[in-house]
Amino acid sequence: MSKRNAAAGKGKVIKMAPKIAYRNLFHDRMSLIVTLVGIVFSVVLVAIEVGLYKGSENKIATVLDKAPADLWIVPYGTKSFDDPSLLIGHEKYAALSTPGVQYAEDMIVSFSSWRKPAGGKKSFILIGLDWPNGGTRPWSLEEGAVEDLQLPNAVAVDRSYFEDLGIEGRGDYAEINNHRIQVTAVTKGIRSFTTLPYIFTPITTARKFVGASAVQATYVLVRLEKGADVNAVRQALETRLTGAEVLTHDEFTRRSINYWMFSTGAGLALITGMVLGAIVGVVIVAQTLYASTKDHLNEFATLRALGASASYIHAVILIQALLSAVLGYAAGMLLAMLAIYRLSIRVPTLTIVMTPTIAAYLFALTVGMCVFAAITAIRKVTRIDPAGVFNR
């Protein structure tokens, strides 16, 4: 009977933990507001920094993601997709004669000079694609068709770069490397990480603009036969090619992202912002939880004297931290989404990505941040002497 009563009492005490945590949290409204402001600031800052980082990765891999290939043949020492130089030549035919290769296509990528109709120059990245022979086709065309790019010296320009290139729309003329060109197609939403415009044209036109021979390319995209061993084909290609590297699609994408995000320091700045946001959140939550715990030391000591275990007191503090995390995350994400929406309208060239997966990771980070911050308060409670309550 006594055991049954003890178990019932213990269950009742456990059920009271959320109630006590809720009352502790909402008893001091000012402390609660300070806690939530800290968490909201942290969530908004980390959400925008993560969104900018992911958006930057997407920009760096824009062309790579639209040109699927199992293997990329690149000039030896290539640091990123936007670090182009020409291969020796004939790599495409070497690839096509390698067992396991189904298809290979050339791609020209080159820094070039655009002379504006009204005067002045603008550097850009010229991309020559080989879609007439079954290769990668231009994408996101908003005006004009792929067939319009088959006209002599025809190019496709993204609408977001019209002002930079000094043109007003489709049909305008300009010069590329002293060749007169016409804009016959307009793309939408294709932007580079370096802010230099991507301009698309057939590979034969691109070779003429950059002075490449009819068999030269910057990259060769290789697709394998079904069931072919990627490593075996890669090794066979490496033994047949000179002055070139053979990378998988993921390796080339990761190399490009790592170069721009870490070698240039751009990514480190974003990561530093994320870390600072998390630190600010931990410090503010830790301070307020510690102060709340200190204010309720007498109550916690009374609970210990009545038989409450240390784990029960810890549970109260952790529930306070979790409640703070949920409330702060909800308000923070709401403000972050509003900020991202406003920024996308005011600064359309800025790419901030927010996906359900990123939001889920942010929630986990917020909970972890608050639980970590609760450690200082738990250490304070652990030192409570239950007998102290009888000395008052």
From TrEMBL:
It is found in: Cell membrane. Residues 33-239 form the MacB-like periplasmic core domain. GO terms for cellular component: plasma membrane. Keywords: Cell membrane, Membrane, Transmembrane, Transmembrane helix, Transport. Residues 273-386 form the ABC3 transporter permease C-terminal domain. It comes from the Bacteria. Pfam families: FtsX, MacB_PCD. It is a multi-pass membrane protein. The chain crosses the membrane at residues 32-52, 259-292, 312-341, 353-378. InterPro entries: ABC-4/HrtB_transporter, ABC3_permease_C, DevC, MacB_PCD. This is Multidrug ABC transporter substrate-binding protein.
